[in-house]
Design a protein that fits this description.
The chain is 58% helix and 3% strand. The chain is mainly alpha-helical and 118 residues long. The radius of gyration is 16 Å and the shape is globular.
């Protein structure tokens, strides 16, 4: 998914430092990664007029790893790696994490459609 040397990149070290020094930011990601308001810090940092907004970290990571038309592709990848580190995910296992999360949310919604036997 990502370059092997990206963990040594300046972008990776930058985001690692941001999350290490800003405890509130790190805790927000840790506590709200399944449901919260997340904005792409890379898009915001390069002055995009409209910040990209995501309802969970999975969407944010998918954006950061799949974005093609940007001046900061490596920064997006590094940001995704650091987010995964913060929330305890292995970025190379993202498809499995997405499916597991989807399974649990579908299981919850299936309960709404069970007919009442009475």
């Amino acid at each position: 998914l990502l370059d092997n040397d990206s963990k040594e990149s300046e972008e990776y070290k930058f985001f690692e430092k941001v999350f290490a020094e800003d405890g509130d930011l790190r805790r927000y990601y840790e506590n709200n990664h399944k449901e919260g308001d997340f904005y792409c810090l890379v898009c915001g940092g390069i002055g995009k007029k409209v910040w990209k907004r995501f309802k969970d970290c999975i969407g944010l990571i998918q954006h950061s790893t799949a974005i093609l038309r940007t001046r900061r592709k490596r920064a997006h990848r590094a940001y995704a790696q650091v987010i995964c580190k913060v929330v305890g995910w292995d970025i190379d296992q993202m498809p499995a994490i997405v499916l597991k999360d989807l399974d649990s949310s579908l299981a919850g919604s299936r309960k709404l459609f069970v007919r009442n036997p009475n």
